Amino acid sequence: MDELVVLFGGGGFLGRYVAQELLRGGARVRIAERDPLDAFFLKPLAALGQAQSVRADITKPDSVERAIAGADVVINLVGILKGRLDDVHVTGAANVAQASAAAGVKRLVQISAIGADPAAESAYARTKGEGEQAVRAAFPGAAILRPSFLFGPEDGFVNKFAGLISRLPMVPVIRPQVRSQPVWVVDLARAVAKVALTAAGEGKTFELGGPQALSMIDLHKWIADAIGHHPTFFQVPDVAAAAMARFGFLPGAPLTWDQWLMLQRDNVVGKGTKTFADLGIEPAPLAAVAPKWLVRYRTHGRFSLNAA
After folding, report:
1. CA-CA distance, 21 to 115, in Å (whole number)?
2. Bridge-partner residues for 53, per DSSP?
3. How far, rounded to the nearest angstrom, does the alpha carbon of residue 168 sit from its chain's CA centroid?
4. Sheet hosting strand 4-8, strand order edge to edge
5. pLDDT tens digits along 203-242
6. Residue 186: in which H helix or E strand, if any?
7. Is 294 in contact with 226 (CB distance < 8 Å)?
8. 0.90 surpassed by pTM
9. Which strand (E) or helix (H) includes residue 174?
10. Is residue 49 over pLDDT 80?
11. What does the alpha-carbon distance between residue 270 and residue 266 come to, in Å, rounded to a whole number?
12. 3-state secondary structure (DSSP) of residue 69
């Protein structure tokens, strides 16, 4: 296989793993980034001539068209948590889908998120939902993947909590009963590669969650056990948490108002949706892979008696 795959956002957390899966599958990969140097570290992973970088910004149609020229497959991983959400999640996604259709691309993969809904109160969920609609309108055969929260060595999710738990004697937990299904980034990368390099996802939407639906408090407790730190956890009352999110505290709020809105519902796979199982992938639980890098949060790191 020597299909040319254009990977928007290939230099990010998920992108590095998707790029590796594509290269392993024999594809040629063109990594599209606003700053191509952000993806330079991927070059040594490719065979001679198998990977290239190009400057592109999905909010600028001309740069998207140039990046896609000659491509067989296009993958859009670009997403942000704050800032120009409409520009990136809606307009940007539409630009990629429209340019892909015009260029005669065979397959398009759009990364969305569980909870994406054009009617959502959260701006993140709303723009992700509107982005899906824009992609479907321009490229009906696109594969849309909606993952839950990602975890991996470079994540800003499990590592964030592990950092707090390792340093503080008392750790606040906001919305402790809200559940999520954390996904190992490698499993999601495998799913992306599968629908990019085969017809398995054409015209379909998948909700991709890990094998465990964990409440926020259970996730904190699991991390505490994994790193050998056991602070006191206490629930932040909803009224106080909402106030922190709405008004913030200098130098910054612990969470934004939009993140607070997202925490009002579980981040889990919906009933009757297509999942990892439909792609022949068995996702790994936290306990199978996370201790390998969480060891750095233990008191004596890899020299801890209980280190993995």
Report:
1. 26
2. 31
3. 28
4. 51-55, 28-33, 4-8, 73-76, 107-111, 143-147, 205-208
5. 999 999 999 999 999 999 999 999 999 999 999 999 988 9
6. helix 185-197
7. yes
8. yes
9. strand 170-174
10. no
11. 10
12. coil
